Every structure is written in C-alpha cells, then in structure tokens.
Automatic annotation (TrEMBL):
GO terms for biological process: response to antibiotic; siderophore biosynthetic process. InterPro entries: Acyl_CoA_acyltransferase (IPR016181), Acyltransferase_MbtK/IucB-like (IPR019432), GNAT_dom (IPR000182). This is Alcaligin biosynthesis complex, short chain / Alcaligin biosynthesis complex, large chain @ Siderophore synthetase component, ligase / Siderophore synthetase small component, acetyltransferase. It comes from plant metagenome. The keyword Cytoplasm does not apply. GO terms for molecular function: ligase activity; N-acyltransferase activity.
Length: 209
C-alpha cells in the first residue's frame, strides 16, 4: 500500500455494527487473549505513527506520514461512515490495528468477481514489547474469528504486496488460498481468499500438529 485509500469502504450500517461489536468485545477477552476497541484517531495517532515508522512497516506505506497526517487519514476513515478500524489490546497494552472493508466498493473489486459476504481486511501488528512465539498467528486468528463470528463474513479477502513474504506465510497458516495477482495503486498484490471452512480446517491442523 503505497497510496492509502479511504473511500468506498463498508456500508454505514455494517460500520455501525462493527462499532457495537468492538465495544462489546472490549470487556470480553478472546481465547487468543485480545480485546478490541474502536480506533480514536485523535488519541491513537501518535501511537500508530510510532508503529508506522518502524523498518518493518514499509508495506503499510505510511512511513513518511507525520502524526497529523496519520490522525487525518484515520479521522477521514472513521467519519466516512463506510470505514472500520479497531485497535486490539493484549495484557492491557496496544497490540495491533485492524481495518475492514467491502471489496465490492474498493479498487480490489475491479480485479476479481466479488461475492456477497466478502470482507477485505488489513492488519498491522505493533512492535512487541517481548517476542512471543506464535504471537502474530494469535493476532490474525483473533481477527478472523471476529470477521466470521461477529460480522458474519462468508469469505475474507486480502491483497498483500507480493514481496511481503512474512504476511503470505501468516495468511496461509490461517487458511488463505492465493488465487492470482492484481496491479493495485502502488503495488502488485497477491489476492487470497479464506472461507470459514478454510479457517476452521487450518485451526484444527494447528491444534493437532
């Protein structure tokens, strides 16, 4: 993502549903140990900026943003009524950012036949205070459960940069199947899909390995 986009995200009703669910989850720790709340651009921009300037954040394409630019970007996203962003916590500390969007109204939707119930997802895991084996796997597992169980997605779609090797491995670990590439603004993306069945199978394989 070298050029971030805020238009054409989730319908407003779906966005409101996400806000309600994040409030509910705040007091309900998940099996993975995370809670989730809605993003507050005014108070969270400095934290996100400190994450985005890290070396590993180059694929997020906001390394050159100032704190004010980060705040403005996410304020536009939140105010649009069609965008969803949440901040997850682990042990009381900020852990990762998640964005959710409707591919039918996104650039990605021009590159594959969108189905009803498809949801697009972006995740950015913050720098860990202590390195814990399997931490990012736990984070994306939490997000996938949220999308399927709380937002009733039938399929999750991701479009990472083809050069972002770590995220491809993580995606495959939770059940994503890659199906071609697309030239998006600023990147060549690998398009991958994950149904609930794909996710459940991958989760069972992890537990029985």
């Amino acid at each position: 993502m070298t050029q971030r986009q805020t238009d054409h995200f989730l319908p407003a009703a779906f966005a409101r549903g996400l806000l309600e669910e994040t409030r509910a989850l705040r007091a309900e720790p998940s099996p993975e140990g995370f809670t989730l709340r809605t993003l507050d651009p005014a108070t969270d921009a400095a934290l996100l900026h400190s994450w985005f300037v890290q070396d590993y954040a180059r694929f997020w394409a906001m390394q050159d943003y100032s704190i004010e630019q980060v705040r403005a970007f996410y304020q536009d996203l939140v105010d649009s009524g069609h965008a969803c962003a949440g901040l997850a916590y682990c042990d009381g500390q900020p852990a990762f950012l998640v964005e959710i969007y409707d591919p039918a109204h996104d650039e990605l939707g021009e590159h594959y036949p969108v189905r009803a119930g498809d949801l697009g997802m972006h995740i950015f895991v913050g720098p860990p205070r202590v390195r814990i084996s399997g931490y990012t796997r736990r984070a994306i597992t939490f997000v996938m459960r949220f999308l399927f169980d709380r937002l009733h997605a039938t399929r999750v779609v991701v479009e990472p940069d083809i050069h972002n090797t770590p995220i491809h491995a993580l995606n495959r670990a939770v059940g994503f199947v890659y199906d071609g590439q697309a030239q998006l603004r600023g990147k060549t993306a690998g398009i991958a899909f994950c149904t609930r069945d794909d996710f459940v199978t991958a989760t069972l394989q992890e537990h029985t390995a």
